[in-house]
Amino acid sequence: MPTSRRSFLYTLSAAVPAAAQAPKDSVRLGFIGSGVRGKQLIDEFMAVPGAKGVAVADLYDGCLQRAKEQLGDGIQAVRDYRAVLDNKDVDAVVIATPDHWHEKIVLDALSAGKHVYIEKPMTWSLAEGPRIVAAAKASGKVLQVGSQAKTSALTAKAKEIIASGALGKVNMIRMANHRNSAEGAWQYPVPSDASEKTIDWPKWLGKAAKRPFDPKIVFQWRRFWDFSGGVAADLFVHQFTQMHELMGVKAPISAVSAGAICKWNDGRTVPDVMNSLLEYKEGFIVDVYVNQANSQQPRGLFIYGDEGTLMIDFRRILLIPEPKESPAQEYGSLNFPKKLRDEYLAKFPAAPRESRPEPKEISVERGQSHNWYFIDSIVNNKPSRENAEEGHYAAAAAHLCNLAWRKQTRASWDPASGKVKL
Protein backbone atom coordinates (compact mmCIF):
# COMPACT_ATOMS: atom_id res chain seq x y z
CA MET A 1 0.00 0.00 0.00
CA PRO A 2 1.27 3.51 -0.71
CA THR A 3 1.88 5.20 2.59
CA SER A 4 -1.86 4.76 2.81
CA ARG A 5 -3.72 3.61 5.86
CA ARG A 6 -0.94 3.81 8.42
CA SER A 7 0.56 7.12 7.40
CA PHE A 8 -2.86 8.71 7.05
CA LEU A 9 -3.89 7.61 10.53
CA TYR A 10 -0.59 8.96 11.78
CA THR A 11 -1.19 12.25 10.00
CA LEU A 12 -4.78 12.41 11.20
CA SER A 13 -3.69 12.07 14.81
CA ALA A 14 -0.54 14.14 14.40
CA ALA A 15 0.54 15.77 17.60
CA VAL A 16 0.21 19.37 18.62
CA PRO A 17 3.44 21.40 18.52
CA ALA A 18 6.37 19.55 20.08
CA ALA A 19 6.99 22.09 22.83
CA ALA A 20 3.51 21.47 24.21
CA GLN A 21 3.83 17.69 24.37
CA ALA A 22 7.49 16.78 24.89
CA PRO A 23 7.97 14.21 27.67
CA LYS A 24 10.30 15.29 30.46
CA ASP A 25 12.73 12.38 29.89
CA SER A 26 14.00 10.47 26.86
CA VAL A 27 13.20 6.84 26.10
CA ARG A 28 15.89 4.84 24.31
CA LEU A 29 14.36 2.44 21.80
CA GLY A 30 15.54 -0.79 20.24
CA PHE A 31 13.75 -1.84 17.04
CA ILE A 32 13.33 -5.58 16.47
CA GLY A 33 12.27 -6.26 12.91
CA SER A 34 13.10 -3.49 10.47
CA GLY A 35 11.20 -4.38 7.31
CA VAL A 36 8.54 -2.26 5.63
CA ARG A 37 6.54 -1.60 8.78
CA GLY A 38 9.65 -1.50 10.95
CA LYS A 39 11.03 1.26 8.74
CA GLN A 40 7.84 3.27 9.17
CA LEU A 41 7.90 2.79 12.93
CA ILE A 42 11.43 4.15 13.16
CA ASP A 43 10.31 7.29 11.30
CA GLU A 44 7.17 7.64 13.40
CA PHE A 45 8.92 7.20 16.74
CA MET A 46 11.73 9.55 15.78
CA ALA A 47 9.03 12.21 15.27
CA VAL A 48 8.00 11.84 18.94
CA PRO A 49 9.87 14.16 21.31
CA GLY A 50 11.70 12.14 23.93
CA ALA A 51 12.18 9.04 21.78
CA LYS A 52 15.68 8.03 20.71
CA GLY A 53 16.59 5.06 18.50
CA VAL A 54 19.75 3.32 19.72
CA ALA A 55 19.54 -0.27 18.42
CA VAL A 56 18.10 -2.35 15.57
CA ALA A 57 17.88 -6.11 15.05
CA ASP A 58 16.92 -7.75 11.77
CA LEU A 59 17.75 -11.02 10.02
CA TYR A 60 18.32 -9.33 6.64
CA ASP A 61 21.52 -7.29 6.39
CA GLY A 62 19.90 -4.83 3.97
CA CYS A 63 17.36 -3.78 6.59
CA LEU A 64 20.15 -3.18 9.08
CA GLN A 65 21.94 -0.95 6.56
CA ARG A 66 18.77 0.99 5.85
CA ALA A 67 18.15 1.43 9.59
CA LYS A 68 21.63 2.95 9.92
CA GLU A 69 20.69 5.35 7.14
CA GLN A 70 17.74 6.44 9.30
CA LEU A 71 19.33 6.48 12.74
CA GLY A 72 23.07 6.88 12.07
CA ASP A 73 26.04 4.52 11.90
CA GLY A 74 26.52 4.70 15.67
CA ILE A 75 23.51 2.54 16.53
CA GLN A 76 23.77 -1.10 17.56
CA ALA A 77 22.83 -3.10 14.45
CA VAL A 78 22.65 -6.87 14.91
CA ARG A 79 20.91 -9.96 13.59
CA ASP A 80 20.22 -11.50 16.99
CA TYR A 81 17.42 -9.65 18.82
CA ARG A 82 18.67 -10.99 22.14
CA ALA A 83 21.68 -8.68 21.86
CA VAL A 84 19.25 -5.75 21.86
CA LEU A 85 17.51 -7.16 24.94
CA ASP A 86 20.89 -7.47 26.67
CA ASN A 87 21.74 -3.85 25.86
CA LYS A 88 21.44 -1.86 29.09
CA ASP A 89 21.03 1.35 27.10
CA VAL A 90 17.71 0.11 25.68
CA ASP A 91 14.65 1.08 27.73
CA ALA A 92 11.97 -0.24 25.39
CA VAL A 93 11.67 -2.30 22.23
CA VAL A 94 9.49 -1.85 19.17
CA ILE A 95 8.68 -5.23 17.60
CA ALA A 96 7.66 -5.47 13.94
CA THR A 97 8.63 -9.01 12.92
CA PRO A 98 6.50 -11.57 11.06
CA ASP A 99 3.59 -12.68 13.25
CA HIS A 100 4.95 -16.14 14.09
CA TRP A 101 7.80 -14.52 16.06
CA HIS A 102 5.66 -12.11 18.09
CA GLU A 103 4.98 -14.18 21.21
CA LYS A 104 8.57 -15.37 21.68
CA ILE A 105 10.12 -11.93 21.33
CA VAL A 106 7.46 -10.19 23.47
CA LEU A 107 7.93 -12.68 26.32
CA ASP A 108 11.71 -12.44 26.10
CA ALA A 109 11.56 -8.62 26.08
CA LEU A 110 9.30 -8.47 29.14
CA SER A 111 11.53 -10.98 30.92
CA ALA A 112 14.52 -8.75 30.12
CA GLY A 113 12.77 -5.80 31.79
CA LYS A 114 11.98 -3.85 28.64
CA HIS A 115 8.82 -1.91 27.85
CA VAL A 116 7.23 -3.30 24.69
CA TYR A 117 5.50 -1.83 21.65
CA ILE A 118 4.24 -4.78 19.59
CA GLU A 119 2.92 -4.26 16.10
CA LYS A 120 -0.54 -5.66 15.47
CA PRO A 121 -1.68 -8.40 15.44
CA MET A 122 -0.28 -9.06 18.88
CA THR A 123 -0.47 -12.80 18.30
CA TRP A 124 -0.14 -15.42 15.58
CA SER A 125 -2.60 -17.81 17.26
CA LEU A 126 -5.48 -17.68 19.71
CA ALA A 127 -3.55 -19.60 22.37
CA GLU A 128 -0.72 -17.05 22.53
CA GLY A 129 -2.85 -14.16 23.82
CA PRO A 130 -3.42 -15.27 27.45
CA ARG A 131 0.29 -16.02 27.87
CA ILE A 132 1.27 -12.52 26.77
CA VAL A 133 -1.47 -10.94 28.90
CA ALA A 134 -0.20 -12.79 32.00
CA ALA A 135 3.43 -11.91 31.31
CA ALA A 136 2.63 -8.22 30.75
CA LYS A 137 0.71 -8.01 34.04
CA ALA A 138 3.51 -9.74 35.96
CA SER A 139 6.24 -7.56 34.43
CA GLY A 140 4.96 -4.17 35.54
CA LYS A 141 6.16 -2.81 32.20
CA VAL A 142 4.21 -0.88 29.58
CA LEU A 143 3.04 -3.06 26.70
CA GLN A 144 1.28 -1.23 23.92
CA VAL A 145 -0.10 -2.85 20.78
CA GLY A 146 0.23 -0.93 17.52
CA SER A 147 -3.19 -0.54 15.95
CA GLN A 148 -3.03 3.27 15.53
CA ALA A 149 -6.73 4.11 15.17
CA LYS A 150 -7.60 3.14 18.74
CA THR A 151 -6.12 6.35 20.12
CA SER A 152 -6.95 8.73 17.28
CA ALA A 153 -8.96 11.89 17.84
CA LEU A 154 -11.39 10.65 15.18
CA THR A 155 -12.11 7.50 17.20
CA ALA A 156 -12.56 9.46 20.42
CA LYS A 157 -15.12 11.75 18.78
CA ALA A 158 -17.04 8.87 17.19
CA LYS A 159 -17.11 7.06 20.53
CA GLU A 160 -18.58 10.18 22.15
CA ILE A 161 -21.33 10.35 19.50
CA ILE A 162 -22.26 6.69 19.96
CA ALA A 163 -22.32 7.04 23.76
CA SER A 164 -24.63 10.06 23.44
CA GLY A 165 -27.37 7.82 22.05
CA ALA A 166 -27.50 9.62 18.69
CA LEU A 167 -27.63 6.27 16.87
CA GLY A 168 -30.16 4.68 19.19
CA LYS A 169 -29.58 0.95 19.69
CA VAL A 170 -26.69 -0.23 17.51
CA ASN A 171 -27.61 -3.45 15.75
CA MET A 172 -25.03 -3.89 12.97
CA ILE A 173 -21.54 -2.72 12.05
CA ARG A 174 -19.94 -3.09 8.64
CA MET A 175 -16.19 -2.72 8.15
CA ALA A 176 -14.28 -2.91 4.87
CA ASN A 177 -10.76 -2.47 3.58
CA HIS A 178 -10.32 -3.16 -0.13
CA ARG A 179 -7.42 -2.81 -2.53
CA ASN A 180 -6.53 -4.15 -5.99
CA SER A 181 -2.82 -4.11 -6.66
CA ALA A 182 0.20 -6.36 -6.33
CA GLU A 183 1.41 -4.17 -3.47
CA GLY A 184 -1.98 -4.37 -1.77
CA ALA A 185 -1.84 -8.16 -2.13
CA TRP A 186 1.60 -8.25 -0.41
CA GLN A 187 3.61 -9.09 -3.55
CA TYR A 188 6.39 -6.81 -2.31
CA PRO A 189 9.62 -6.61 -4.34
CA VAL A 190 12.54 -8.82 -3.31
CA PRO A 191 15.90 -7.02 -2.99
CA SER A 192 18.48 -8.11 -5.55
CA ASP A 193 20.99 -9.15 -2.87
CA ALA A 194 18.59 -11.44 -0.98
CA SER A 195 20.40 -14.72 -0.35
CA GLU A 196 21.33 -17.09 2.44
CA LYS A 197 24.45 -14.97 2.93
CA THR A 198 22.47 -11.79 3.63
CA ILE A 199 19.52 -13.47 5.42
CA ASP A 200 19.61 -15.86 8.39
CA TRP A 201 17.02 -18.22 6.93
CA PRO A 202 16.99 -20.91 9.69
CA LYS A 203 16.49 -18.26 12.37
CA TRP A 204 13.86 -16.47 10.27
CA LEU A 205 11.78 -19.67 10.04
CA GLY A 206 11.72 -19.92 13.82
CA LYS A 207 9.08 -22.38 14.96
CA ALA A 208 7.75 -22.92 11.41
CA ALA A 209 8.51 -26.15 9.56
CA LYS A 210 11.88 -26.31 7.79
CA ARG A 211 11.86 -25.67 4.05
CA PRO A 212 14.29 -24.65 1.31
CA PHE A 213 15.36 -21.01 1.21
CA ASP A 214 12.85 -18.83 -0.59
CA PRO A 215 13.44 -15.06 -0.50
CA LYS A 216 9.86 -14.39 -1.57
CA ILE A 217 8.63 -15.87 1.70
CA VAL A 218 10.91 -13.53 3.67
CA PHE A 219 9.53 -10.41 2.00
CA GLN A 220 5.99 -11.62 1.26
CA TRP A 221 5.33 -13.68 4.39
CA ARG A 222 1.76 -12.44 4.84
CA ARG A 223 0.71 -14.77 2.00
CA PHE A 224 1.25 -17.88 4.13
CA TRP A 225 -0.52 -19.34 7.19
CA ASP A 226 2.78 -20.47 8.75
CA PHE A 227 3.86 -16.89 9.30
CA SER A 228 0.69 -14.77 9.38
CA GLY A 229 -3.07 -14.73 9.78
CA GLY A 230 -3.75 -13.46 6.27
CA VAL A 231 -6.18 -10.63 5.59
CA ALA A 232 -7.94 -11.11 8.93
CA ALA A 233 -4.82 -10.69 11.07
CA ASP A 234 -3.28 -7.98 8.90
CA LEU A 235 -6.37 -5.93 8.03
CA PHE A 236 -9.41 -6.98 10.06
CA VAL A 237 -7.46 -6.39 13.29
CA HIS A 238 -7.07 -2.65 12.71
CA GLN A 239 -10.83 -2.31 12.51
CA PHE A 240 -11.65 -4.74 15.31
CA THR A 241 -9.43 -2.69 17.60
CA GLN A 242 -11.10 0.57 16.62
CA MET A 243 -14.59 -0.92 16.76
CA HIS A 244 -14.03 -2.43 20.22
CA GLU A 245 -12.96 1.01 21.43
CA LEU A 246 -15.95 2.73 19.81
CA MET A 247 -18.49 0.29 21.25
CA GLY A 248 -16.83 -0.32 24.61
CA VAL A 249 -16.86 -4.10 24.08
CA LYS A 250 -14.21 -6.77 24.52
CA ALA A 251 -14.64 -9.56 22.03
CA PRO A 252 -17.01 -11.53 19.78
CA ILE A 253 -18.61 -14.80 20.82
CA SER A 254 -18.89 -16.41 17.37
CA ALA A 255 -17.88 -16.06 13.75
CA VAL A 256 -18.64 -17.53 10.34
CA SER A 257 -16.51 -16.86 7.28
CA ALA A 258 -16.40 -17.23 3.53
CA GLY A 259 -13.37 -16.61 1.35
CA ALA A 260 -11.30 -17.72 -1.60
CA ILE A 261 -8.20 -17.02 -3.67
CA CYS A 262 -9.91 -15.10 -6.44
CA LYS A 263 -7.05 -13.31 -8.19
CA TRP A 264 -3.60 -13.78 -6.71
CA ASN A 265 -2.76 -17.36 -7.65
CA ASP A 266 0.85 -16.93 -6.59
CA GLY A 267 1.26 -19.89 -4.24
CA ARG A 268 -0.33 -18.15 -1.27
CA THR A 269 -2.26 -20.24 1.24
CA VAL A 270 -4.43 -17.43 2.62
CA PRO A 271 -7.55 -16.07 0.81
CA ASP A 272 -7.39 -12.77 -1.05
CA VAL A 273 -11.16 -12.19 -0.68
CA MET A 274 -12.72 -12.84 2.72
CA ASN A 275 -15.97 -11.95 4.46
CA SER A 276 -16.74 -12.74 8.09
CA LEU A 277 -19.84 -12.24 10.20
CA LEU A 278 -19.39 -12.02 13.96
CA GLU A 279 -21.80 -11.95 16.89
CA TYR A 280 -21.28 -9.87 20.04
CA LYS A 281 -23.13 -10.61 23.27
CA GLU A 282 -23.99 -6.92 23.56
CA GLY A 283 -26.62 -7.47 20.87
CA PHE A 284 -25.12 -6.50 17.52
CA ILE A 285 -23.41 -8.25 14.63
CA VAL A 286 -20.31 -7.22 12.70
CA ASP A 287 -19.86 -7.77 8.98
CA VAL A 288 -16.19 -7.38 8.02
CA TYR A 289 -14.60 -7.95 4.65
CA VAL A 290 -11.49 -7.48 2.54
CA ASN A 291 -11.22 -7.73 -1.22
CA GLN A 292 -7.72 -7.71 -2.69
CA ALA A 293 -9.14 -7.88 -6.22
CA ASN A 294 -11.25 -4.69 -6.20
CA SER A 295 -10.58 -1.24 -4.77
CA GLN A 296 -14.00 0.41 -4.81
CA GLN A 297 -14.68 0.03 -1.08
CA PRO A 298 -11.88 1.78 0.80
CA ARG A 299 -11.27 1.32 4.49
CA GLY A 300 -14.14 2.49 6.66
CA LEU A 301 -16.75 1.64 9.27
CA PHE A 302 -20.52 1.97 9.13
CA ILE A 303 -22.25 1.75 12.51
CA TYR A 304 -25.99 1.20 12.17
CA GLY A 305 -28.48 2.04 14.92
CA ASP A 306 -32.26 2.27 14.90
CA GLU A 307 -32.05 6.07 15.09
CA GLY A 308 -29.02 6.81 12.93
CA THR A 309 -25.89 5.68 11.14
CA LEU A 310 -22.30 6.74 11.71
CA MET A 311 -19.84 6.54 8.82
CA ILE A 312 -16.17 6.73 9.76
CA ASP A 313 -13.30 6.80 7.28
CA PHE A 314 -9.75 8.15 7.30
CA ARG A 315 -10.78 11.77 7.11
CA ARG A 316 -14.20 12.34 8.58
CA ILE A 317 -17.23 11.27 10.55
CA LEU A 318 -20.64 11.47 8.92
CA LEU A 319 -23.78 11.23 11.09
CA ILE A 320 -26.86 10.18 9.11
CA PRO A 321 -30.11 10.30 11.13
CA GLU A 322 -32.84 7.78 10.34
CA PRO A 323 -35.87 9.11 8.43
CA LYS A 324 -38.77 10.31 10.57
CA GLU A 325 -41.66 7.93 10.02
CA SER A 326 -45.11 9.31 9.27
CA PRO A 327 -47.82 7.87 11.56
CA ALA A 328 -50.12 7.54 8.53
CA GLN A 329 -49.31 4.35 6.62
CA GLU A 330 -50.25 5.18 3.04
CA TYR A 331 -48.64 2.03 1.66
CA GLY A 332 -49.79 -0.25 4.46
CA SER A 333 -53.42 0.82 3.95
CA LEU A 334 -53.52 0.27 0.17
CA ASN A 335 -55.54 -2.92 0.59
CA PHE A 336 -58.39 -1.10 2.39
CA PRO A 337 -61.63 -0.35 0.51
CA LYS A 338 -61.64 3.31 -0.53
CA LYS A 339 -64.11 4.39 2.13
CA LEU A 340 -62.23 2.71 4.95
CA ARG A 341 -58.90 3.98 3.69
CA ASP A 342 -60.17 7.56 3.45
CA GLU A 343 -61.48 7.29 7.00
CA TYR A 344 -58.15 5.87 8.19
CA LEU A 345 -56.02 8.59 6.54
CA ALA A 346 -58.41 11.31 7.78
CA LYS A 347 -57.26 10.48 11.31
CA PHE A 348 -53.89 11.97 10.43
CA PRO A 349 -54.74 15.25 8.65
CA ALA A 350 -51.54 17.01 9.69
CA ALA A 351 -49.26 13.98 9.49
CA PRO A 352 -46.03 14.83 7.66
CA ARG A 353 -44.70 12.62 4.95
CA GLU A 354 -41.58 10.58 5.74
CA SER A 355 -38.64 12.95 5.87
CA ARG A 356 -34.95 12.22 5.45
CA PRO A 357 -32.74 14.52 7.54
CA GLU A 358 -29.54 15.80 5.97
CA PRO A 359 -26.30 13.97 6.92
CA LYS A 360 -24.08 15.94 9.26
CA GLU A 361 -20.31 15.96 8.87
CA ILE A 362 -18.45 16.12 12.19
CA SER A 363 -15.17 17.98 12.30
CA VAL A 364 -12.33 16.60 14.44
CA GLU A 365 -9.19 18.35 15.60
CA ARG A 366 -5.91 16.49 15.55
CA GLY A 367 -4.53 14.82 18.64
CA GLN A 368 -1.39 12.92 19.60
CA SER A 369 -0.06 10.00 17.58
CA HIS A 370 -0.40 6.40 18.75
CA ASN A 371 3.39 6.24 19.10
CA TRP A 372 3.37 9.32 21.31
CA TYR A 373 1.14 7.54 23.83
CA PHE A 374 3.66 4.72 24.24
CA ILE A 375 6.45 7.15 25.13
CA ASP A 376 4.11 9.14 27.38
CA SER A 377 3.03 6.01 29.24
CA ILE A 378 6.65 5.06 29.95
CA VAL A 379 7.88 8.50 30.97
CA ASN A 380 4.85 9.50 33.03
CA ASN A 381 3.99 6.08 34.44
CA LYS A 382 0.58 5.93 32.77
CA PRO A 383 -1.42 2.84 31.76
CA SER A 384 -0.96 1.59 28.20
CA ARG A 385 -3.45 3.05 25.74
CA GLU A 386 -3.69 -0.30 23.94
CA ASN A 387 -2.79 -2.96 26.45
CA ALA A 388 -2.12 -6.68 26.09
CA GLU A 389 -5.68 -7.69 26.91
CA GLU A 390 -7.09 -5.34 24.27
CA GLY A 391 -4.53 -6.58 21.77
CA HIS A 392 -5.44 -10.17 22.58
CA TYR A 393 -9.17 -9.63 22.06
CA ALA A 394 -8.71 -7.79 18.75
CA ALA A 395 -6.36 -10.44 17.41
CA ALA A 396 -8.63 -13.18 18.77
CA ALA A 397 -11.53 -11.83 16.71
CA ALA A 398 -9.38 -12.24 13.59
CA HIS A 399 -8.21 -15.71 14.65
CA LEU A 400 -11.86 -16.70 15.18
CA CYS A 401 -12.66 -15.59 11.62
CA ASN A 402 -9.75 -17.67 10.33
CA LEU A 403 -10.77 -20.74 12.33
CA ALA A 404 -14.29 -20.51 10.92
CA TRP A 405 -12.93 -20.27 7.37
CA ARG A 406 -10.30 -22.98 7.68
CA LYS A 407 -12.70 -25.41 9.39
CA GLN A 408 -15.64 -24.38 7.20
CA THR A 409 -17.95 -24.07 10.22
CA ARG A 410 -19.28 -21.66 12.83
CA ALA A 411 -16.60 -20.91 15.44
CA SER A 412 -17.96 -20.08 18.90
CA TRP A 413 -15.72 -18.67 21.62
CA ASP A 414 -15.97 -17.95 25.33
CA PRO A 415 -13.58 -15.01 25.90
CA ALA A 416 -13.53 -15.63 29.66
CA SER A 417 -12.41 -19.26 29.50
CA GLY A 418 -10.77 -19.13 26.09
CA LYS A 419 -12.65 -22.24 24.97
CA VAL A 420 -13.48 -22.58 21.27
CA LYS A 421 -16.29 -24.72 19.89
CA LEU A 422 -16.23 -25.68 16.22
Low-pLDDT sequence parts: 1-22
Q: Report the C-alpha radius of gyration, rounded.
A: 24 Å
**Name given to the CATH architecture of the largest domain:** 2-Layer Sandwich
Decide which structural class fits the backbone: alpha/beta
User: DSSP helix count?
Assistant: 14
Q: Average pLDDT across residues?
A: 92
CATH topology of the largest domain: Dihydrodipicolinate Reductase, domain 2
In what range is the share of β-strand residues?
15-25%
Strands of the biggest beta sheet: in what spatial order? Answer: 14-13-12-11-7-10-9-8-15-16
At the fourth level of CATH, the homologous superfamily of the largest domain is Dihydrodipicolinate Reductase, domain 2
What is the terminal-to-terminal distance? 34 Å
Order of helices and strands: HHEHEHEHEHEHEHEHHHEEEEEEHEHHEE
* Largest sheet: number of strands, sense, barrel closure: 10 strands, mixed
Count all strands and give the number: 16
Question: Under the CATH scheme, which class of the largest domain?
Answer: Alpha Beta
Number of domains: 2
Shape: elongated
The level of helicity is: 25-40%
